[in-house]
UniProtKB/TrEMBL annotation:
GO terms for molecular function: iron ion binding; oxidoreductase activity. InterPro entries: Ald_Oxase/Xan_DH_a/b, Ald_Oxase/Xan_DH_a/b_sf, Ald_Oxase/xanthine_DH-like, AldOxase/xan_DH_MoCoBD1, AldOxase/xan_DH_MoCoBD2, AldOxase/xan_DH_Mopterin-bd_sf. It comes from the Bacteria. Keywords: Molybdenum, Oxidoreductase. This is Xanthine dehydrogenase family protein molybdopterin-binding subunit. Residues 20-127 form the Aldehyde oxidase/xanthine dehydrogenase a/b hammerhead domain. The lineage of its organism: Bacteria, Pseudomonadati, Bacteroidota, Sphingobacteriia, Sphingobacteriales. The keyword Oxidoreductase applies.
Length: 707
């Protein structure tokens, strides 16, 4: 992947390929004899399929097969007992509206689409419930514990505080909706070897899931996924539709491609669960927090429980002797949710950071001063130090940049023409742990270095970051380094998620470079060369075309257990709210990341910008609206589910503290994919309050709520 136009070592290694169309995404692979699948989905929400009439579809031009529970070939892994995950085409049961119930395969996409429209399904309808808000109050709806209840000090201490805030914050279902649609190409060959081109955040995870479902060795499954057009969490698992495609390829003995439609993206690949959260905050009159109570409910499915870290940050973000949290999930007749960027924490931060702002207002304190006053030196939940935390510095830098001194504590103080102007702030935090990964390094006598790992790049620029880590350590220019990823046959690495790739795979890159350097030093010594000799000279002197090392990094440094490791962010926004229409425009953004050393400045900035875009969506526009009479989404398209576009997003100022974390990994770099969005919606809601005096506790903040 050459860089044709620029010479900046910080440029994305794949930037030119991406913008010129050379980068190949899964759906672009042309296999000989490729066939096309189209899914038929349930039009009821719960019940039983009584018949599938696929006669007309099967007889339509070009059709190769129609698979459903009536004729599906055996999938060995589905026969095993247990497992809550949806087993596609396994039974006649319908568990949610839009459930894939049949797959039509034809020689062209158009013919498959037409044939799918001919499949006639009859049902026995059952009673269903998709109403999240109603279910929270309904005692007959079972609510499951999503996490063990947590109590520090006195439960509900806020109720006896001098100043109290008790409010409920709600959020709708959001869908990830990356530009690239989900899908897979599966090519099952007669020797039970299968190759897939997939959209995945984890090639090893996809490999293992397919191998497990079909009970074949993992090595028999080759997963290719070099480029991914956005994931945001939805490609963290191998979905039933992918298993169906592999099933079809095996059955029809042909390669099959399935790319789902935009409306199917709303029911087949997870969503950010709707949430209902109650926060109780207590403080002394002079602004010391004395109690935090956070009770959260999250939407889940009836067939699989989904939980996430909604209440996590309430336990340690502020110093309070008394904290208690509860988290429940509400199983509904909907498809199972999945992590969506800043999973759980982004949901929790909206509630907590709104409540913090409400308390600051009740105390007539500046919300920044209030946060600083309650900032803990140590992690109060674990009673141990943070590995690094520069939040006060981040406040200072961000507030100076946005012009926080212009903000008035009294809402509705700034008017510009027919717009009310307001400022808001919110913090974000996410775990900065690190996993275990393997990397192979091949150092060549031609002066180049090839690094290989079965990690992914869903957009953050994994290859660019890894190249920079290696470049610095090996003193090799970045254009002589290649990082190969997205291929399950490479040394194993975890899925790209949870802001951990740079930390995890980067540590292995570090370790492999250290090992390569040691080998070069050894070779130099053995051949009586100077210890500082260039590796090219050392390899040549030893008649070696290359040396190779594969290293698995350790999961954490030994002393990591003595620290709480988190990345932090602070988002400052200025909003303008139109007095007559209630339209909210985010007019200025300053996001400050406290995520350790910045390894790759350009891609790091892009992460923060992307998080701000997602944050604007969460705050102002994104909402998947379900019609509870039918259990069906009514705005399942890009015209009605509005993801922010350029016109919605102002220039984003990104500031990094850029100080290495001494504990997390050799680079000192903490993760930053999630902190880019966590807290952002709260900052917007707080700014809207500052502009208008109206506290909106239900996302998205649409004009009807503002007026
Ligand atoms: Mo992210 S929600 O960890 O892909």
């Amino acid at each position: 992947m050459g860089n044709l136009f620029f010479k900046d070592e910080n440029d994305r290694v794949d930037g030119v390929d991406k913008v010129t169309g050379k980068a190949k995404y899964f759906a672009e692979y042309q296999l000989p004899g490729l066939t096309y699948g189209v899914l038929v989905t349930s039009t009821i929400t719960k019940g039983k399929i009584t018949a599938i009439d696929s006669k007309a579809a099967s007889g339509a031009p070009g059709v190769l097969g129609v698979l459903s529970h009536l004729n599906k070939p055996s999938v060995a892994g589905y026969e095993a007992e247990g497992g809550a995950k949806l087993k596609i085409f396994y039974t006649d049961q319908v568990l949610f509206n839009g459930q894939p119930i049949a797959l039509v395969v034809a020689d062209t996409f158009e013919r498959a689409t037409f044939a799918a429209s001919l499949v006639k399904v009859t049902y026995e309808k059952g009673a269903f419930n998709t109403d999240f808000e109603k279910s929270i109050k309904d005692a007959s709806v079972k609510k499951l514990q999503g996490a063990a209840p947590y109590v520090r000090g006195v439960e509900n201490a806020y109720k006896t505080a001098e100043v109290q805030v008790e409010q409920t914050y709600v959020m709708p279902v959001e869908t990830h909706n990356p530009m690239e649609l989900h899908g897979i190409i599966a090519d099952w060959r007669p020797n039970d070897q299968v190759t897939v081109y997939a959209k995945t955040q984890g090639v090893k995870a996809t490999q293992n899931t397919i191998a497990g479902a079909f009970k074949i060795p993992a090595e028999s499954v080759q997963v290719n996924s070099e480029f991914v057009g956005g994931g945001f969490g939805m490609a963290l698992r191998t979905w039933p539709l992918e298993i169906a495609t592999v099933m079809a390829s095996k059955h029809l003995k042909k390669p099959v491609k399935l790319v789902i439609t935009r409306d199917q993206m709303f029911t087949m690949v997870g969503n950010r669960p709707a949430a209902h959260q109650k926060i109780g905050l207590g403080a002394t009159k002079d602004g010391k927090i004395t109690g935090i109570t956070h009770t959260a409910f999250g939407q889940s499915s009836t067939y699989e429980n989904f939980t996430e870290g909604v209440v996590n940050m309430s336990k340690f973000m502020y110093s309070s002797e008394n904290v208690n949290t509860n988290y429940y999930i509400v199983p509904l007749d909907m498809s199972v949710p999945i992590w969506m960027r800043g999973p759980g924490e982004a949901t929790g931060a909206f509630a907590l950071e709104s409540a913090i702002d409400e308390m600051a207002h009740a105390l007539d304190m500046d919300p920044l001063d209030f946060r600083i006053k309650n900032d803990p030196e140590k992690d109060p939940a674990q009673n141990r130090p943070f590995s690094s935390k520069y939040i006060k510095e981040a406040y200072k830098l961000g507030s100076a940049k946005i012009g926080w001194d212009k903000r008035k504590n009294k809402p509705r103080s700034i008017v510009e023409g027919s717009w009310n102007v307001g400022y808001g702030v919110s913090i974000g935090v996410f775990n900065a742990g690190r996993g275990r990964a393997s990397v192979k390094g091949i150092l060549k006598a031609d002066g180049t270095l090839v690094l290989q790992s079965a990690t992914s790049d869903i957009g953050p620029g994994t290859g660019t970051g890894m190249g920079l880590i290696a470049s610095k350590l090996m003193n090799i220019p970045t254009d002589k380094i290649t990082f190969e990823l997205g291929d399950s046959s490479l040394p194993p690495a975890p899925s790209q998620g949870g802001s951990a790739t740079l930390s995890t795979v980067g540590s292995a890159v570090n370790d492999v470079c250290v090992a390569l350097k040691a080998t070069i030093a050894e070779l130099a010594a053995n051949s009586n060369m100077d210890a500082t000799s260039n590796f090219v000279d050392v390899l040549k002197k030893n008649n070696l075309p290359m040396i190779e090392k594969t290293i698995q990094s350790s999961q954490n440094n030994p002393d990591a257990k003595n620290y709480s490791m988190y990345s932090f962010s602070i988002h400052f926004v200025q909003v303008k709210v139109h007095q007559l229409t209630g339209v909210v425009k985010v007019s200025k953004i300053v996001s400050v990341g406290d995520s350790g050393k910045i390894v790759s400045p350009k891609t790091a900035r892009s992460q923060m910008v992307g998080g701000a875009v997602g944050g604007i969506g969460m705050a102002l526009t994104e909402e998947a609206i379900l019609d509870n009479r039918y259990g069906r989404y009514v705005n399942n398209n890009f015209a009605d589910y509005h993801v922010p576009v350029h016109a919605d997003v102002p220039e984003v100022d990104v500031i990094f503290i850029d100080k290495p974390d001494p504990i997390v990994n050799p680079m000192g770099a903490k993760g930053m994919g999630e902190i880019a969005i966590i807290g952002f919606a709260g900052a917007v809601a707080n700014a809207v309050f500052n502009a208008t005096g109206k506290r909106i506790r239900s996302l998205p903040i649409t004009p009807d709520k503002v007026l």
